[in-house]
Amino acid sequence: MRWWLFLCILHQDDTDVAGVNKWCKHIEVPGCDPAPDKPDKDGWMNGYIKNMKHCHLVLFLLCSFRSGQLAANETDSGKGKCDEVSRLEAQRAVGAAVAKLGLTLLEKLQPGSEQPNIIISPLSISLLLAKLALGARNKTEEKLLEALQAKKLTNFHETLSCLQEELTAKAVKMASRLYLIPGFSLNQDFVDRALNLYKSEPAHLTSIEEVNQWVEEATKGHITNFLSSLPPNVVLMLINAIHFKGEWQSRFDSRFTVKDIFYIDTKTSVKVDMMMGSKYPLSMFVDRTDGTQVARFPFQGNMSLLVVMPMPTQGNLSDTAAKLNISDMYEHFQSEMSMQVKLPKFKLEYKQDLRQALSNMGLDFLFTGPDLSKIAQGPMVVSGVQHASSMELSEDGAEASAATSLPLTRTIPTFAVNMPFIFALVDDASYTPLFLGIVTNPNPEATMEQSVEAKTESSMKATKGTLRDGTINDSPHRENMLSLLISLWSVFSLSHSQLEDTAEAEGEEEPVDLFTTPRTKLAAATSDFGYNLFRQLAARDTKASIFLSPMSISAVFTQLSMGASKRAEKQIYRALRYHTLQDTQLHDTLRDLLSSLRSSVKGFKSAERLILTRKLRLRLEYLNSVEKQYGVRPHTLSGGARDLKTVNDWFKQETGVDQVIPAPLSRNIVLLPAGAALFKGKWITRFSKSNKMENFLRDGEAPVLVPMMEQENYPIAQVPMEDGVSMYFFLPDEVTHNLTLIEEALTAEFVQDLSNSLHTVQVLLTIPVIKLNYNTDLLPSLSDLGLSEWLENTDLTKITSLPVKLNAVPHKVVMEMAPEGAEYASTMPAARGQSLSLKYRLDRPFLFVVRDELSGALLFIGKVLNPSYSERA
């Protein structure tokens, strides 16, 4: 990060005027008109003000923050004179003052369309203003100390000096220098104190090259070519340089960085490179009073990146920043826990004139007539405050998060930085912020897209449910975000407060390996692929119902991978989430899993087939191997009119699903990986057949009448079906098609945790009677899953020697939710403390998951926005 602070100095000493003129001529400073050697009749000062472009006292703050590998730092240990003032309490008091200054300044700065992000260095600003305070007198000194939050602090300069020294002994590189032109003199006492306290070493300003060389050396080469020219009429420059390049304690694996959505506001989003950690050790808490989530990402060397995500209903980010208290944040942080983490990768720059912001903080006197007479004789004014900074976050670090030794608890919560946030780079010991900022768009160069149009007027709602595991919300719309997940836990854990004996018996949770066999591990991988694909489809079409059968899609692409080169196979496996399995018998495992799922009792049928043109000159070995492994031979198109009927007839015979490929097959078809699935399971406990027509509410539209089925005393923990299949419903508190929270939170581990830990609650359950019929082309969404490079060069060398492009990925699913079941509802009385009056009504948009409990396989996932129109062609 780089900063410039330009101050104007006017001087009455004739000797110094001559020196200024000589220096100006020597280095040809633009706009520096020589002053008269003798005062004119109006006095030298008045005449000079009328005729000159001001000479300047220039203060530079060079600031840079970058995550990455840590370079060695050669510095002293910060002992000696600091022993007397190095008490932690004193340093934290100064750290709090630095934080207050930075947060106050941040409040005055507003992100805009041209500069959506703000990055400042409170420490560097404090050091610079502290040096000015050394040279100030009377009201100027008082006001500067007030802005520094230092009026009530004893030994402020000494403590700040020692804090600077101790931070320099860590990963922070700081340097300071006083540059003055030949012939211009400073008060020696100021020079001595600035050197002693803040290491501001005086030096002659002879050329831009000399300044740039010192800056480069002071920052260990991280800031180069700092100056391209000098401001007009400079007589003195104070330069403060600070640079931090940190090493994550647990780094992000670059192999898992993917394109993902960052929600700029409730209606706009942008694609960013998102760093991912599946079991990242993170400390965090939710401040429900202020409506914020706060997480701590530690660096080595006792530094941390704090991320604060406020709810949109809390006002703008700058207002929220003013309320933050860094020391309070540290008091609320709990021990680290394994979490699913998303953090955007970016490199940002920020440029801003801070004059107005500093004036609004009460420092306007700096620009009119400050008393800085301890620096030098003569009046000085600040002419402007130009600020430039940069920040970079990347994966570099010391340890992969997957290698963490933290045990896996039964629930893996999520913290996703996918909406505007406040950040602070903080020293863990003194709570001093080196950097503060606001990020509203991590990728300002990218094209913005329309996002979910959710309502943000309502505030965060209280709930009777207990968020037992600290699960964090992952949504761009916080009024839904928090209430959605709390609703999830309140629905599935309503009886928790009554189960005292159970809670006491459970004690502390033991680490659990959720998936232990090749089949359950493969089922988890295909499920995670399905959740990822579902999220991409939901982001592409926010106002449409969506239904998928991940097992069918995974199966057809696994067939395709058998014809791929090693490189292409690796790319496909990564998208399908196979890359972590290390299963040498993967194809056998998948075949057996599909066979077990396609039983008539479960009500699940699926069929997958590759459709290829004969023009590819297909390799017979590949066709035979697929048929031998999966019992179905890839279909070769004859090029005739009957091709479409032949393909659709086969899918209908295998699954009962008709018209999987709705349009006539083009003669340009090269490769179609097609799949179809049908689910018609039977509830263990049947619903009433009242067919009562009731309203189903919709977001921003009139409600529709749909037939409803209901059941009293229903075990809502999960809705069981025959042969070990269960259906999970996720319902928001409000009528909204924004289900991003649930969409983002769903993983194989998360749903397995629900299955393991939910408690049974007797409720009156009411759900719509619907038949779902969904047909879509999945090809546009595949590039968002990391397959864009593969789609450009499929490299299917075991299928054909010719280049192959996918024309489409047709996928059709049919599902029925009818009242029929194997038995009637139980008349068993409610458990002690529970009420049969509890109701759970799916009368507004909801999300559901159909899952095989034995294997953990995700059979179906869907989002229902309008049950009366559940068919999509």
Summarize this structure briefly:
It contains 23 helices and 34 strands.
What attributes characterize this protein structure?
single chain; 23 helices; 34 strands; 3 domains; disordered N terminus; Alpha-1-antitrypsin, domain 1; 873 residues; alpha+beta
Report the major sheet: 17 strands, mixed
What is the end-to-end distance? 53 Å
Provide the CATH superfamily of the largest domain: Antithrombin, subunit I, domain 2
CATH topology type of the largest domain: Antithrombin, Chain I, domain 2
Portion in helices: 25-40%
Mean pLDDT equals 74
The number of strands is: 34
What low-confidence regions span 5 or more consecutive residues with pLDDT below 50? 1-56, 69-80, 397-411, 452-512, 713-717, 822-837
Give the overall form: elongated
Number of helices: 23
Rg over C-alpha atoms, rounded to the nearest angstrom: 33 Å
What's the number of structural domains? Answer: 3
Proportion of beta-strand residues: 25-35%
CATH architecture of the largest domain: 2-Layer Sandwich
CATH class of the largest domain: Alpha Beta
Structural class: alpha+beta
